[in-house]
Structure formats: structure tokens, C-alpha cells
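pasting for ref
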Amino acid sequence: MNTVTSLPDKVLLQGSAGLIEVLCDKPEGSPKGVAVITHPHPLLGGTAQHKIPHQLARLLQAMGYVALRPNFRGVGQTAGTHDMGVGEVDDTLAVVHAFAEASSPASLILVGFSFGAYVQAKVAERLDKSRHPLSALVLIGTPFGVIGGERAYDTPAAPQDAIVIHGENDEVVPLAQVMDWARPQALTVVAIPDANHFFNSKLVELQATVKKHLEAALRPPISAR
């Protein structure tokens, strides 16, 4: 991919299991970088067009980033079948590598919601091992441990500067469960009062919280201003 400024609204990339469908939202003017936003569990109706990744893409677009929303395996035009996070991590990395180097400056933000947060935590871990630069990691509604009595998530530790946001009344991933994940890492969790897992009636607060913490995380050091 030679440039992110000439992207169509949708592209198909080659991944290890076949084509990966990626929805693209471009900002006005020269982009500050690339934001890859991943969606909730595909077997539970999650797609790149889900309201939360959609609204987060609009936010990142407004903040000056090319917002990319890949569909996971078996969703939309993405090939393959659900791979319990393994192939989904590989596909998300394929999107990162296809687009991140094409952005100038090469600022990369990863944003994930629910199952997508689990995937992005794994992606960030892989990028760290390969020393690939990452500007910010935003994890929302992050699953950890056994969810719904059947799905188990071995969510890895996140970078200390990760932005972790959760609903106070999350009925899918109880706040206490994500705190059990964050506590050994001394990782801060931002809880949105009265919000459930899907942030019903709280999307404005969610966007404002993401924007506030991203602006602080991406602010250059005083010495560089």
C-alpha cells in the first residue's frame, strides 16, 4: 500500500487465510497516522460496522487518523472461519504491516472493543516482541478469564501506558474481573459510571473518555514542543 491518502472506503488485503476486508475512514488533510479498530465477537454478531467500532472510527478520523476497521474471519468479505483469536491476531497484524509504514508520520494506534480488545492486547504483545513502534493502545470492555461460563481468555499484560476503559455495570465482563487482570500489572482502569458492556446511552461519554486519554497519551513531551 503506497499511500493511505488515496484509499477507497473499503480494501481487500491478502491474509494467511485469504482476503481480509478492511473498512477505511480517511481524515481531511494529511493524516497523523493510522488507527486500527477491532470489533466484538463475530459469533455473537460482532462486525466492523458494530456501533462501537463505527463510532470510534469516526472519532479517530476526526482526530486526524486514517481509521481502519478489519472484519474478522468469516465476517463480511473476510475469508476463513472464526479462529478463537489466533488467526484474528495474525490478520490484524497483516493490516498493521500493510498500512502503518505507508503513513507519514508512522504513528500507530490500536483500539479494540470486547473480543477485539483481547485481539489487540495480543497484537500489542507481538508488536512489542518485534520492537514495532506503537503510539497508543486503547482497550475497551476487555475480556479476561472465563466469560459467559464458556469462553476463556488468556489476555496478556498490557503496556503501562495502555488506556483501559470499562463499563461500571458491564454484565458480560464484570468490572471486578477486568480489575483482577489489571491489578497485578498496576494498570489503571477507567470506569464509566452506569455503563453496561455495550455502553448503551453512554456512547458520548465513551467517545469523550477515549478522546481525552488519547490526547494526553499522544501529547509530545514539554521538551519537544
